[in-house]
Design brief:
The complex is a heterodimer of chains A (about 325) and B (about 475). Chain A has about 325 residues and is α/β, with parallel strands linked by helices. Chain A has two domains: about 170 residues, Periplasmic binding protein-like II (D-Maltodextrin-Binding Protein, domain 2); about 150 residues, 3-Layer(aba) Sandwich (D-Maltodextrin-Binding Protein, domain 2). Chain A is about 50% helix and about 15% strand. In chain A, helix 9 runs parallel beside helix 10. Chain B has about 475 residues and is α+β, with helices and mostly antiparallel strands. Chain B folds into two domains: about 60 residues; about 400 residues, Porin (Beta Barrel). Chain B is about 15% helix and about 50% strand. The longest helix of chain B has about 35 residues. The chains are: A alpha/beta (about 325), B alpha+beta (about 475). At the A-B interface, loops of A face helix 2 of B.
Chain lengths: ~325, ~475
């Protein structure tokens, strides 16, 4: 090989190496499309995961977040928002990504432990300090003169949990059936003066705007609100029963494969089940799945009777029957 | 704000009115009044919150709502983020020709030279497409059908049917050319062709490049000459560089200079049925040169190279465009089974065209923007531009050598054409202009008696609509 050819070969190899190494020098990015109340949780979780990822792989990571009503967020991803992962309020919103967007496989929920729900929550009441309207249970929400704040079940995952918790309580009352439950739900929603699109909007309505006597809130939102307001401004009331909300998480395969972030996205979600992550989850008032962490924070999460979505026959049935166009909610709200 | 005032009014009324009525009955207690006040305050807050939510919903909807626009640049439907759009534009040219000289072969006529709806758009923010059918001159032709991926300003890839990046005047839009008929160099350069092109701008947009790999078009021709399908496997390579060396200069006088060079190369062989050789027309569109046809036609047989240095200069109201094109074409003619004549024919053409806006507009290569539009009501006249040009076409003497065995018949084809034209362009608006040219062309050769073809004098007009 001539001298000039050797020089050319060295230059070529140098250029090739730089080209191959260039991606490694760039920070990786991930987009997590989540539901409304998880902002603070994922702010802390993302920092922890990025630190762990850098220590493990040497690569810098930036996780971008998008928050909004769970149903709206699912729609946005179907319409093209390039989410590597989704961490939404209910499984049916992720199912929509399968059926309408063909963005991930139908068996997505089986790919991570506990039906892909690394944390749970429930629905509680946030009332004004001193509970002037004496709101103790679901029956009080339907009384005249009580103003109830809840988001719109058509757009908010949290609102659908609220609705189902109320519906479940009505069914369990003596003589309870679908007709009495729907009548009760009708009375409850007559007491709702403002329907925000998401849980965070309802929190704004109740806390910042001072509207309503009771906010039906995710447990974590209720605690965050007390922390923000101060204990002198509100108090949490646990009803006699509520619903076990299991917000699921999933890799959006079509996006992650296209962006080359499949392994990273999977690791990001798997880390939610780790002990450090479960600590963060508990600190932000989500009920951790890890038994050890759950026991450590048991005092923060009172035991109450909880129904599950399985008691309603699953999300597919619930979505079609209650929240689909022309479903029970549409009929009740139209009256 | 209005709702707050209304709410406070209602509040006052709801407190005072019952008070007035209640004065006749038992007066309300302080607690009742405070309760009523609290209820009214809640009602106002609810109204305000609903309004906030409505405004938020409107803002969200506006962000995702598509937009429909209509302007002098056409009609556009685009997504809220502008990354996806479809635009409808159009070009309509109605031309007139009046022969001043007594040219029996060319009647005075009006014709629709171009009737082109242009559908273009962008998908995904970086993929541009364009589809231009043309219904002018009594036929239907697909002029443009291509997609361009704008991956970077320095790297754009086009696939489809597009203008071959060679001739400077050819690359100018039909609505922007200053004369009705393009000049002789454009008769030597390819028009549209089908293939791939890579192009871009580098060095702070001071240099643009283009390389293309296409089927190969005849001089002045487009691929529809071969029904948009290549009849051989031979392809043409095209390359062009064009620079604005003083593009960022502070000197106004230097900024408008553009200079470049383009070239093409192919090696192809025609057939009796498809010789791959051009014919040339005068500014009035008389055919003044063609290679021999018939049972022993002249065909392209070997290499064809084109070289086209070019420039333009625009400064204020003044514009100047010049180009020179040379085509070197290997030809042959099979006279009988034993005799095949071959040679290389070098054809050249050049032009120098100047323009000047009387009404103060800025002369540019692309587009025009009259300072005013023609309006009887407002007493404005639009823009007026004077134009003048000189152009020549020179056929290699080798084309006519050999008597009856020549590649071109000297009694039917000219050896040289020299044309001088003047004109006035009246821009009635951004979208409408009226062009009138006087062109006088003199010829060497091309007459049946061996002499020179009669001079051609023509007045050419065009009403051009473009948006």
């Amino acid at each position: 090989m001539t001298r000039s050819n050797r020089t050319r070969l060295r230059s070529g190899l140098l250029i090739l190496s730089a080209a191959l190494a260039a991606p490694a020098l760039h920070a990786q990015t991930l987009l997590n499309v989540s539901y409304d109340p998880t902002r603070e949780l994922y702010e802390e979780y993302n920092a922890a995961f990025a630190k762990q990822w850098k220590a493990k792989t040497g690569k810098r990571l930036t996780v971008r977040q998008s928050h909004g009503g769970s149903g709206k967020q699912a729609r946005t991803v179907i319409d093209g928002l390039a989410a590597d992962v989704v961490t939404l309020a209910l499984a049916s919103d992720i199912d929509a990504l399968v059926t309408q967007g063909k963005l991930l496989p139908a068996n997505w929920q089986a790919r991570l432990p506990q039906n892909s729900s690394p944390y749970t929550s429930t629905i509680v009441f946030l009332v004004r300090k001193g509970n002037p309207k004496k709101i103790k249970d679901w029956s009080d929400l339907a009384k005249p003169g009580v103003s109830v704040i809840t988001p719109n079940p058509k757009t908010s995952g949290g609102a659908r949990w609220n609705y189902l918790a109320a519906y479940a309580w009505a069914l369990k009352q003596p003589g309870g059936n679908a007709a009495t439950a729907q009548a009760y739900i009708g009375k409850l929603f007559k007491n709702v003066p403002v329907l925000d699109t998401g849980a965070r909007g309802s929190t704004t309505t109740f806390i910042q705007r001072g509207i309503g006597d009771v906010l039906l809130a995710w447990e974590n939102e209720a605690y965050l609100s007390i922390e923000a307001l101060g204990p002198s401004k509100g108090e949490i009331v646990y009803p006699s029963m509520s619903i076990l909300a299991e917000p699921p998480v999933a890799v959006v395969d079509k996006v992650a494969l296209r962006r080359g972030t499949a392994d990273l996205a999977r690791a990001y979600l798997e880390y939610l089940y780790s002990k450090p992550a479960q600590e963060i989850i508990a600190k932000h008032h989500y009920r951790p799945r890890d038994p050890e962490i759950a026991a450590k924070y048991a005092k923060s999460f009172p035991k109450i009777e909880l129904v599950t979505i399985a008691d309603f026959g699953g999300w597919a049935k619930v979505q079609k029957e209650h929240f689909g166009d022309g479903g029970v909610f549409d009929r009740i709200y139209a009256r | 704000m209005r709702i707050r005032r209304l709410g406070r009014g209602l509040l006052a009324a709801s407190v005072i009115a019952p008070l007035a009525v209640a004065q006749a009955q038992t007066p309300p207690t302080i607690e009742e009044l405070l309760q009523r006040l609290e209820q009214q305050e809640q009602a106002i807050k609810v109204l305000e919150r609903r309004l906030e939510n409505m405004e938020e919903a409107d803002t969200t909807a506006a962000k995702s709502a598509g937009q429909v626009k209509a302007s002098e640049r056409g009609f556009t439907v685009q997504s809220a983020d502008g990354k996806n759009l479809v635009k409808l534009r159009g070009v309509l040219h109605t031309d007139g020709r009046h022969m001043v000289s007594d040219e029996a072969d060319l009647p005075d006529t009006f014709k629709i030279t171009r009737a082109r709806p242009i559908i273009e758009g962008t998908v995904g923010g970086i993929y541009d497409f364009r589809f231009t059918p043309d219904f002018g001159q009594g036929r239907t032709v697909i002029q443009d059908a291509y997609v361009t991926g704008r991956f970077a300003p320095s790297f754009q890839v086009t696939a489809g049917k597009f203008k071959s990046p060679v001739g400077l005047e050819r690359l100018q839009s039909a609505n922007d050319i200053r004369f009705v008929a393009r000049a002789f160099p454009t008769s030597l350069n390819p028009n549209r062709d089908i293939g791939f092109k890579v192009e871009g701008n580098v060095l702070d947009d001071r240099l643009s490049y283009a390389v293309a790999f296409v089927n190969g078009s005849n001089d002045g021709g487009s691929s529809e000459t071969f029904t948009d399908t290549d009849v051989t496997s031979d392809k043409e390579y095209v390359a062009r560089l064009f620079a604005h060396p003083f593009g960022s200069s502070e000197s106004f006088a230097l900024r408008g200079l553009g200079i470049g060079i383009a070239g093409t190369y192919t090696d192809h062989t025609g057939t009796n049925a498809q010789p791959f050789l051009p014919a040339f027309r005068s500014p009035a569109q008389a055919t003044v040169f063609r290679y021999r046809a018939g049972t022993t036609p002249t065909i392209a047989d070997g290499e064809r190279t084109r070289l086209a240095p070019q420039f333009y200069y625009y400064a204020g109201r003044f514009g100047l465009l010049g180009e020179y094109t040379e085509v070197s074409q290997d030809v042959s003619r099979t006279l009988d089974t034993a005799v095949v004549r071959s040679d290389t024919i070098d054809t050249t053409a050049w032009q120098l065209a100047a323009s000047f806006f009387l009404t103060g507009e800025e002369a540019t290569y692309r587009g025009y923007k009259p300072i005013s539009s023609f309006s009887i009501e407002s007493g404005t006249w639009g823009a007026f531009e004077l134009t003048v040009r000189y152009h020549e076409l020179d056929i290699d003497d080798a084309a006519f050598a050999g008597g009856a065995d020549s590649f071109a018949d000297p009694s039917a084809s000219i050896r040289k054409a020299s044309a001088f034209g003047v004109g006035v362009n009246w821009y009635l608006s951004q979208n409408l202009k009226w062009v009138i040219n006087y062109e006088r062309t003199s010829f060497d050769g091309g007459a049946a008696d061996g002499g020179d073809r009669d001079d051609e004098e023509a007045v050419l007009t065009r009403v051009a609509v473009g948006f």
